[in-house]
Amino acid sequence: MDLAAIRAFIAQEFPQTNLVIEAVGEQTCRVRQPIDTSHLRPGGTVSGPTQMFVADVAIYIAILHKLGPVALAVTTQLSINFLNKPAAHTDLVGECKLLKLGKRLVVGEVYIYSAGSSEPVAHAVGTYSIPPEAVQ
């Protein structure tokens, strides 16, 4: 799927999200999550669940780019290391790279940044299961 097709697919299947898909490449993608007060936790930082969402969706977007519209691909594992405090009221940017693209499992990693910063705020690794009917 190209960038326009992925954006249309996500808008149709996940209308509740305001995540922005900025770019897709060969087993990579870049996404941006606009941050508002609903994403903050006490202490003036972006919540862990918001950061995990960015990681999870980034891997899914990279899979869509590579395999096409696999609506029923599911996360089977996601781990995250919180490295630095994200800036409050600053978008999160996730940069994903697929590490392994197997017949049934896909593994990807995501570095998450506060927009404008070169230091990652988190690093995540996740695995997706691809439904048998999607495997070509």
TrEMBL record:
CDD domains: PaaI_thioesterase. GO terms for molecular function: thiolester hydrolase activity. Pfam families: 4HBT (PF03061). SUPFAM superfamilies: Thioesterase/thiol ester dehydrase-isomerase (SSF54637). Residues 43-117 form the Thioesterase domain. Gene3D superfamilies: Hotdog Thioesterase. This is Uncharacterized domain 1-containing protein. It comes from Thiothrix eikelboomii.
